[in-house]
Amino acid sequence: MHVVSAGGSRASGGAALGVLLGDLPGGKPPAALARRFCRAADVAYRLVADRRGQLSRLVPAALSRRADHFVEDRLRGSSPPA
Question: Which terminus of the chain, N or C, has less C-beta within 10 A?
């Protein structure tokens, strides 16, 4: 995962987690934790990233289809479903 901040700096892997969370509503406290424990965030990121295939099987098919439609709509420039 790579994140580019509003200021133009780039972060990758676990370091990107703090940047990403900081931009989400209510994300400031977890972002601060991710930044404070950067090594742990990176280890957690690697654990998930290395097992994303196995973890994807836990996502219900209906939710996966909804996400696929959302991405297709965004690529076409349509508004997302309500």
Answer: C
Amino acid at 54: Q
Using one digit for the tens of pLDDT, what is the confidence trace for 26-65? 999 999 999 999 999 999 999 999 999 999 999 999 999 9
Residue type, 50: D
Distance of CA 66 to CAs 53, 69, 71, Å?
Answer: 19, 5, 9
Percent of the chain whose pLDDT exceeds 90: 62
Nearest alpha carbon to residue 42 among 75, 12, 20, 10 = 12
